[in-house]
């Protein structure tokens, strides 16, 4: 095969590769404009902001009020009478 033919094939292959890469890039840009694609740095920034808000909110809960947690209150409501009854029964007091 002559050198000119090899160079021609090589040049054609490189142009094809370039056009495919440009088409892929344009497709990504189109998806981003249509809202189908979100940039990773934007996602990271949004999550970082959300986690900071959650952390700040949790740290604002005063320690002295932590015992009033809804979960703990529910547990007290469920176990309170039974536990109280068991303690009183153990001391011989009426319920």
Describe this protein's structure:
The chain has 95 residues and is mainly alpha-helical. The protein has a domain at 1-60. It contains three helices and no strands.
Cα Rg = 34 Å
Structural classification? mainly alpha
Biggest β-sheet description = none
Number of helices: 3
Shape: rod-shaped
The arrangement of helices and strands along the chain is HHH
Report the strand count.
Answer: 0
Uncertain stretches of 5 or more adjacent residues: none
Helix coverage percent: over 70%
N-to-C CA distance:
105 Å
Per DSSP, what share of the residues sits in E-state strands of 2 or more residues?
A: under 5%
Mean pLDDT: 79
In brief:
The chain has helices at residues 3-33, 40-59, 70-90.
List its traits.
single chain, 95 residues, mainly alpha
SSE layout and pairing:
Elements: H1 3-33, H2 40-59, H3 70-90
